[in-house]
Amino acid sequence: MDQSQAKQTHPPWPACPVPINDHGVIEVAHGGGGRKTHQLIASVFIEAFGDPLQTLGHDGAVFTPGAEQLAITTDSYVVDPIEFPGGDIGAMSVHGTANDLLMCGAQPKYLSAAFVLEAGLPLAILRRITASMRCAADEAGVTIVTGDTKVIQSDRGDGMTITTTGIGQVIARTPIGPAQVSDGSAIIVSGDLGRHGIAVMCAREQLDLGNAIHSDSACLAPAVLPLLDAGLPVQCLRDLTRGGLATALVEIAQSGQVDIEIDEQAVPINETVRGACELLGLDPLYVANEGRFIVILPEDQAEHAIALLQTTDFARDARVIGRVTQGKGNVSARTAIGTRRVIDMISGEQLPRIC
Amino acid sequence: MKYIDEYRDSTAARKLADHIARTATRPWTLMEVCGGQTHAIVRFGIDQLLPDEVTLVHGPGCPVCVTPVALIDAAIEIAQHPDVILCSFGDMLRVPGSSGNLLAQQANGADIRVVYSPLDALNLTKENPDKQVVHFAVGFETTAPAHALTVRQAHEASLDNFSLLVSHVLVPPAIEAILGSDLNRVQGFLAAGHVCAIMGQAEYEPIAAKYKVPIVITGFEPIDILAGVAMCIDQLEMGTAAVENPYARAVQAQGNTTAQLLLREVFEIVPRQWRGIGEIQRSGLGLRPRYHAFDAARRFKLFADKEEHQHQQCIAGEVLQGIKRPHDCPAFGKACTPDSPLGAPMVSDEGACAAYYRYRRVTVSGV
Fold first, then answer.
1. Which end of chain A is less enclosed by CB atoms within 10 A, N or C?
2. d(Cα B205, Cα B300) in Å, to the nearest integer?
3. Which residue of A has its CA nearest to B1?
4. For residue B264, how many other CB atoms are within 10 A of its CB?
């Protein structure tokens, strides 16, 4: 792990001789680059992630990519609270980056993980988060090979933030992206929407909605890889994270210069999530997800794609929700009462309404 | 989902739309009072189902839209005190005051919390005895009872670190102000169902009689709104002007008498400034003298009676009175967007301009 630029947030004390577990929390000294940092790396990170390439103690990882095309992506993860029903920041930071690689038609291979820890964070929580990352990485078939740790003073962050960078091997046989989307293609959504956003909101605001809603946070590999392996002519894949389905569709329509029409009634939404959205004045099409994606491919391939998707647990609700038409980047929805409305990006976050 | 799906049924919607088309023999202009109804109309494209004879104009019932600039400025000033926690409903945070909004103050380090119920603000008060907790009490008759309850509970618990910045407005005086204006073109009203669930229908009877307008108590789902329009058009065509209540699943004629008692105990009727409209006599609620200790304006000595400033291009006042529609504004979608609103109706989802911008900016063909 790279400690060479460890942030000095207090005078550089000599490495503290007190054993790491004495306080049970992250201290500023853990970011000092000295013995405490090394103890932390060994006892938490290497303990959780293993060290298959023997690189976690080094400045970086060296590996041979082969002749394949590679994909790379990076993302920072900030969530309050860091543990929520159905997931935590650790699993999210692996799923999110692995999913971004999958959306490029690539199989995730290697991951880096950089942690900014707030002093006072209980080590027990950090251990839970890293264990959860390991679990998520194993599921995604990805190895965490390098990383970094910094510590900031308490009250300057929400416990911790994680930045992961992923490298994947491209396995799609044709390019995947908005530019490939063509007139007449079908839009398939992999499952019901809005669980993650509502689960985190309920946990953060302590809203008790009776039926607990769990985040959909998941690695999409088991659903995406069979599509690519089967050689289906997938034009575009997009995971639905911040901004939800609506924002993803607008991004695709605008960058692909096509129009998109969806049938609002066809979009699957869990009843509790729907109830929460009605209650809070939120539009579920804009609520965040962490384990859902859309597939765009020629209409005559939709049935085959859905059959493949539905073999995966979290994609059992996969269905066609709309189609692509010629146009200039507009997205519209057919409403429940048979009229049409425009779908656009919203300005900033959705805020709960007064009444 | 029960109480939702049956009120969004396309066959029922078409049936009501057909009834309206058959009934309306000449042009009629109706106003839906509440911003929640405006949002539903535009989101579901309900007006696309109506015949050309029926025009819907959008009323002043968006609490975010009508809260005067002076009160936003007061909230910002209070939030800047280092020992204050300011609580607010979410969509107030984006509303521009004379310079900046609460969201910007929050980014600058002010302790501003979004609450879902004013009782959350009361809990914060108990958890933070060394802080002054101020709740921005915005809204119509719908949110007022919960605010009254917090004040009574704070009084009973002798909490000296809780206060309300009160900005409550009332629907019937606004309807009267619109009907009394020389520019009025509204011939029938869809009254706000949730306001009537609290207040009942009695206060609308004299308005319907005096101004000879039908007033139909209307809910918020597409079928509710179409039913409200249908009953209003039926009355207009027959020449009657009564208060009708097709929203009986939520509204009883006498309203919620427990809530009304609570309101009367804590609040008294006062004149209020309406953003974009001006002062309307007896159109708002203020704390009664025995609860003045919980009045944030008094506690922080903010009695500024600022003149309402409206951006030169902005026609918010006319939009809120149903005189013009968002598309009539030269700034709509150009100088004025949800990212940089010139007037409050472009801020909240309930604001007519924001609803038009979000759902109507691009003309959708083939409807």
1. C
2. 40
3. A271
4. 12
Q: How far is B164 from chain A (nearest CA, A)?
A: 16
User: In this structure, what DSSP letter does residue B109 have?
Assistant: T
Whether residues A339 and B359 touch (CB distance < 8 A) is answered with: no
Q: Confirm whether B364 is domain-assigned.
A: no
H/E stretch holding B217 reads strand B215-218
Minimal CA separation from B363 to chain A, in Å? 8
Residue of B nearest to A275 (CA): B1
For residues B203 and B312, membership in a common domain is answered with yes
CATH dotted code for A178-343: 3.90.650.10
Interval A193-245: pLDDT, tens: 999 999 998 888 888 776 789 999 999 999 999 999 999 999 999 999 989 99
Same domain (yes/no): B349, B230: no
Q: DSSP string spanning B116-141?
A: SSHHHHHHHHHH-TTSEEEEEEEEST
- Is residue A203 within 8 Å of A84, Cβ to Cβ? yes
Q: A342 and B49: CB-CB below 8 Å?
A: no
- List all residues 6 or more positions away from A23 whose beta carbon is below 8 Å from its beta carbon: none
Cα distance between residue B243 and residue B232, in whole Å: 10
Q: Residue holding tokens 């000295």?
A: A34
Structure tokens at A231: 């050689």
User: Residue type for B294, please?
Assistant: F
B9:A355 CB<8 A? no
The closest alpha carbon to B20, from B179, B222, B219, B312, belongs to B222
User: What architecture is the A20-170 domain classified under in CATH?
Assistant: 2-Layer Sandwich (3.30)
In a domain, B365, yes or no: no
- Is B146 inside a domain boundary? yes
pLDDT tens-digit series, residues A322-346: 999 999 999 999 999 999 999 988 8
Tens of pLDDT along A290-333? 999 999 999 999 999 999 999 999 999 999 999 999 999 999 99
- Is there a common fold for A20-170 and A178-343? no
Same domain? For B251 and B275 the reply is: yes
Contacts of B46 in chain A (CB under 8 A): 337, 339
Among candidate residues B218, B217, B209, the one with its CA nearest the CA of residue B241: B209
As a whole number of angstroms, the longest Cα–Cα distance in chain B is: 65
Minimum distance, in Å, between the CA of residue B45 and any CA atom of chain A: 6
B264 and B340 together in one domain:
no
Whether residues B142 and A339 touch (CB distance < 8 A) is answered with no
Measured between CB atoms, which of A205, A339, A354 is closest to B91?
A354
Domain boundaries, chain A: 20-170, 178-343
Is the pLDDT reported for residue B366 higher than 60?
Answer: no
Cβ contact (<8 Å) for A332 and B364?
yes
Asked if A155 reaches chain B (Cβ–Cβ under 8 Å), the answer is no
Domain that holds residue B21: 1-326
Residues sharing a CB contact under 8 Å with residue A80, sequence separation 6 or more, in sequence order = A158, A159, A200, A204
Write out residues 238-277 of A within 8 Å (CB-CB) of B.
Answer: 271, 274-275
Residue B190 forms beta bridges with which residues? Answer: B32, B216
* B224: in domain: yes
